[in-house]
């Protein structure tokens, strides 16, 4: 063989060997990442075994309960990143988790808890909740209680944890088991027009929920009643019905996992007893004290003290749209103890004077969390009191609240010029005088519907639901014919003189509006969602002043889901403030759009850099990475929910 060929062969073999080694290392790394994602290697360490956790005095304990976790979050399920922020904020404040055993010892033996004790639960027993929560619990050394409905085991619903999976959770150290009861069902239901709907399963409830008001109850809370609110069952029938659920719960858990979980959440009490009726309450109380070690009987407040009964505990249910400071604000006022709030980007926070509430500077967002039943307010510091400004921002706080921008303001807000987004309206006010009130539904071109049309839609939905879930073919045909007959009946429209139906704003309803304000002299021009309003607004105050941001809680009310949430998060995204000397903005060295996100590579050049008074956007490499991550999340969301 030629020497050259031998050298070439050795070189080629060496490359093959190195390539095999590299491939092996990559596969090993991928295997390690997969194993870390799928398996648990850490061990939960109780606070009693740690030296860094203070146990001192009787401080009671905090109880939080989450409906469930989704990858990016929904209106009810909290996103995995958001719940991580919640729990990391609690960890930063010194909270450590306690177990059901700790709670029993606290009430039955007088044992002290650690100084900041947290009992953490996850309701409804969803499989995705366990998947997304597991790694967070491991990283924070937190322990959670997974609550399930026993009926789901029999239905074999793949969205929910099955007995084998619950046993695995209980064995990995980061979980305990609890129960929400045997079933989730609704009774004594009416729509918002007083039409009787009777009893509803969760599937039926989803179809008619858009037309329901507050008049309904949960399965164990009352007698079954007719449309006139009279009981449809005798005392013995009621007792047998409720007892059946507890007996089934006991038997199913005992057979499937070997025991009845000790922690119970009665769905849904908040009655001061164990039901809306004295006789019903007595039946529930009998079974609760017989089967369970503890019961969370109330929702709305987070704090439990030694004066509480172990069968009448309370929990707070953080909502999917709450930011971390929202949780901390509620906790701070429930227990009246100091809390360390989340600040976020320190360099951005330093540019603002916080006058009320709390603020987090999170990437491109300024999140202002109000004080309870009050407001939160920031003033931009070191802003050369410009009189003429151009402001652009995207407001993404929920509709149920107020987000405001004050222009030419002083710190006492005397005679302020304010642009406010509140509910479904945009307001411009100066010195208490209303200069503009814009109906955003009309701005969006939404066709108004009448009360008569909405009532018809509610009745059609109820008949359609009854037909879909009718127990017999004959009944299904009967309800279908009634639905067709109701659809054929006319309804008086708004144009025909009917009263317009104005839907109440749901506390969970998201909002998103882009806003540009051009204030020069006595003229204010507004561009909303890319459309300039027809006429400029004449203002009287033309002197210099400051820029302020404000979030305020709307007039809150009771709701089945969230009894007394009196805190609001106003969210101001991509805020830019310019000294409005000219229509032309400062020119950057290079500006381009990446997935709808503007990227500025360098400082403004070719223009007056001093025109920019404030900019919350991320730029350069940081901005590009943020934009790519946002696009990647949207892409994943599309594929996850499309297939």
What is the CA-atom radius of gyration, in angstroms? 29 Å
Strand content: 15-25%
* Number of alpha- plus pi-helical segments: 15
- Counting DSSP E segments of at least 2 residues, the number of strands comes to 32
Cα shape:
globular
Summarize model confidence as the mean pLDDT.
88
Explain this structure to me?
With 643 residues, this protein is of the alpha+beta class. The chain is 32% helix and 25% strand. Strands 1, 4, 5, 6, 7, 11, 12, 13 and 14 form a nine-stranded mixed β-sheet that branches. The N and C termini lie far apart (59 Å).
Topology:
Elements: H1 3-38, E1 61-66, E2 69-70, E3 78-79, H2 80-92, E4 96-97, H3 100-108, E5 117-122, H4 127-140, E6 144-149, H5 151-155, H6 163-171, E7 175-181, E8 186-190, E9 196-200, H7 202-208, E10 217-218, H8 235-256, E11 263-265, H9 278-291, E12 294-299, E13 303-304, E14 313-315, H10 324-335, H11 346-349, E15 352-356, E16 358-362, E17 365-369, E18 375-380, E19 389-395, E20 402-409, E21 417-422, E22 425-430, E23 433-439, H12 440-443, H13 451-468, H14 473-488, E24 513-520, E25 523-528, E26 531-532, E27 537-538, E28 546-552, E29 569-579, E30 591-594, E31 597-600, E32 612-615, H15 620-642
Parallel strand pairs: 1-5, 2-3, 4-5, 5-6, 6-7, 7-11, 11-12, 12-14
Antiparallel strand pairs: 1-13, 8-9, 8-10, 15-18, 16-17, 17-29, 18-28, 19-24, 19-29, 20-21, 20-28, 21-22, 22-23, 24-25, 25-26, 25-27, 29-32, 30-31
